Amino acid sequence: MNRRDLLISSVAAATGVGLAGCDDHGASKLPQAPAPTTGPDGKRLIPWQNWSGYQFGVPVQRLVPKDEAELSDIMRHAPGPIRPVGAGHSFTALVPTDGTLLSLRNFSGLLSHDQDSMTARLGAGTRLGDVGPMLDEVGQALANMPDIDSQTLAGAIGTATHGTGAGLGALHSYVKALRLVTPRGEIIDCSAEQNPEVFSAAKVSLGSLGVITQMTLQNVPTHRLKRRSWLAPIDELIDNFDQLVSENHSFEMYYIPFCSQAMAVAINPTDEPMQPRGPEQDNDAVMQMKQLRDWLSWWPGMRQRLLDMATRDFEPEEAVDVWYRIFPSSREVRFNEMEYHLPSEALMPAFKQVRERIESQHHEEFFPVEIRVVRGDDAMLSPFQGHAVSSSIAVHRYHKEDPLPYFASLEPIYQPYEGRPHWGKMHTLSSAQLAARYPRWKDFLAVREALDPDGRMLNPYLRQLFGIS
């Protein structure tokens, strides 16, 4: 009997108990997007929503500029706030606007590449899932990727999106140069040598400095990777976490609430023969964990017994494939997310508190908690700035359930460690708190003010985040 079948039988066993909860877990409190409406000019206005459906807005116009000249004109004249949008995979309100919503789909594709320097210039609207085949065809590879590949390059670097690995940086750390179209319509090329202050600010800028149209990435030669996933007692993985991180090119751990075992995933370069990944099981497994929660959230002891039984025979899984088919995974079950980045020495003390709080106060939780590491860098608003290696803890809440009480319960745990939130994921830190945790916060705000003195890129969320009235 495989893991899925055993989980199903476990749920059936739970069903036999004859009792189940009827809590909607705050579903009735979720914000609801407005219905389409009609603008003053008689045009139909259709609401925009992010991937999870939690964030939304009604832009007065949606534009798809065909080139930089048209984009420059839009930046100077279109009604603000002007907000660029990619995959809508941010859980914070970075995108919603009642002004102009910009798509970069005409700024995509591989523009040029250099095999000697192992660099490639790509359109900023290119989806990560499309970057892989493009680079592989010219013998290049991204050094690292996040576990979701639906985002655009601009959205991913703008929010400091990352994968995992102590020697692997976030995507923005591999940007060698970029082109920015400012709210005044200027087109600025920047790098470490050309407009370095703008470059340091623009790499992680939340789309607040203008619109990035292209970027040059430092890549590595294309290669195969071997992915191995296995279950082990969670206390064993906690004790061996640092060793596993140091021994593997890429390593992450998933804590399964109310289960004695946790999942480990290690990825390493290999020359072994191809062995493609099998059918994705994670999405079904998450929904089966939800079903088990629905029946047994009131009885955590029995829930743990069933989860332990369901995971007992899990055989380690291995796959060997080209890098872009190994790093990402399918994430079909929608959620909202909060992720905090911490100094590496704070990871396990903080995680142990998170685990204790979930198991003592959040019997409703079923989504695995993701634990990763990232190499530090020096971008002004990089959450990894100043750390040799950062670590992160990501918690999720099913998209049809209210995330706020759960996130509010866990977020205080990170504050004594001066945790920095992922820019695309939910948090409640004020501009004053953020300023205290980012040594170059004022430098970033000065660059933003110089490029966008009228605040045309700032929606209400960004104004609050930056402390701008």
TrEMBL record:
<feature type="domain" description="FAD-binding PCMH-type">
    <location>
        <begin position="55"/>
        <end position="222"/>
    </location>
</feature>
<keyword id="KW-0285">Flavoprotein</keyword>
<dbReference type="GO" id="GO:0003885">
    <property type="term" value="F:D-arabinono-1,4-lactone oxidase activity"/>
</dbReference>
<dbReference type="GO" id="GO:0016020">
    <property type="term" value="C:membrane"/>
</dbReference>
<dbReference type="InterPro" id="IPR007173">
    <property type="entry name" value="ALO_C"/>
</dbReference>
<protein>
    <submittedName>
        <fullName>FAD-linked oxidoreductase</fullName>
    </submittedName>
</protein>
<dbReference type="InterPro" id="IPR006094">
    <property type="entry name" value="Oxid_FAD_bind_N"/>
</dbReference>
<keyword id="KW-0274">FAD</keyword>
<dbReference type="InterPro" id="IPR016167">
    <property type="entry name" value="FAD-bd_PCMH_sub1"/>
</dbReference>
<dbReference type="InterPro" id="IPR016166">
    <property type="entry name" value="FAD-bd_PCMH"/>
</dbReference>
<dbReference type="InterPro" id="IPR016169">
    <property type="entry name" value="FAD-bd_PCMH_sub2"/>
</dbReference>
<dbReference type="Pfam" id="PF01565">
    <property type="entry name" value="FAD_binding_4"/>
</dbReference>
<dbReference type="InterPro" id="IPR036318">
    <property type="entry name" value="FAD-bd_PCMH-like_sf"/>
</dbReference>
<dbReference type="GO" id="GO:0071949">
    <property type="term" value="F:FAD binding"/>
</dbReference>
<dbReference type="InterPro" id="IPR016171">
    <property type="entry name" value="Vanillyl_alc_oxidase_C-sub2"/>
</dbReference>
<dbReference type="Pfam" id="PF04030">
    <property type="entry name" value="ALO"/>
</dbReference>
<keyword id="KW-0560">Oxidoreductase</keyword>
<dbReference type="InterPro" id="IPR010031">
    <property type="entry name" value="FAD_lactone_oxidase-like"/>
</dbReference>
